[in-house]
Design brief:
The chain is mainly α. It is about 75% helix and about 0% strand. It is built from five helices and no strands. The longest helix has about 40 residues. The two termini are about 20 Å apart. The model has no long low-confidence stretch (mean pLDDT about 90).
Length: about 190
């Protein structure tokens, strides 16, 4: 027995695009954070890993930010309700905690990583590379380090930690919204 094919009208609603946006967002987040990143860290030398991450993270954070916007824009009923002047569904009080809040966390975390934490981390990494040349010693070598390198290592640890926490926050909010979305399936 075959299942019925989707009605052509489903292509004109936001529902499938909302599911595609959510699943892509969750997939890239899981893959980059828990599969690709850790494998690359173990398999590559520190300079190669650093170079790879500098190339990947702007794309990853851009996708994460864009998909969070697309997720909000494809929330079922949002466009129809905004065009007729009502604010039900996404913006209604009943959806603020389990729908709007996680979407906002995903967007704010991703945008913060894209525009601030990611670029700052990269900037500090480059400054450490210059300082390594001055000191004749890698930032990861055992102490003692110059005061400049100690400062850069501390700045890097803070900024990298902040970026990681933002990314973890986006992941947790994505999973949280996934449970909210699953409750709506009949």
């Amino acid at each position: 027995m075959s299942s019925p094919s989707p009605s052509p009208s489903i292509f004109t609603t936001s529902k499938p695009y909302h599911i595609f946006s959510y699943s892509t967002l969750l997939g890239i987040n899981l893959y980059q954070s828990f599969i690709s990143g850790p494998i690359a860290y173990k398999a590559l030398s520190r300079p190669s890993f650093s170079q790879l991450q500098q190339a990947v993270f702007p794309i990853y954070f851009s996708l994460q930010t864009g998909l969070s916007v697309l997720l909000a824009l494809t929330y079922p009923g949002l466009i129809a309700n905004l065009t007729n002047g009502t604010t039900t569904n996404l913006l209604s009080p009943s959806n603020r905690t389990h729908t709007l809040l996680p979407m906002g966390i995903i967007f704010a975390s991703s945008l913060s990583n894209l525009l601030f934490a990611g670029p700052q981390t990269t900037k500090i990494m480059r400054e450490r590379k210059v300082q390594e040349t001055r000191d004749g010693k890698k930032s990861s070598d055992p102490p003692p380090h110059s005061r400049a390198m100690q400062s850069l290592n501390k700045q890097f640890a803070r900024m990298h930690g902040a970026s990681s926490l933002l990314n973890l926050g986006a992941f947790v909010a994505t999973v949280w919204y996934g449970f909210t979305l699953a409750e709506r399936f009949e």
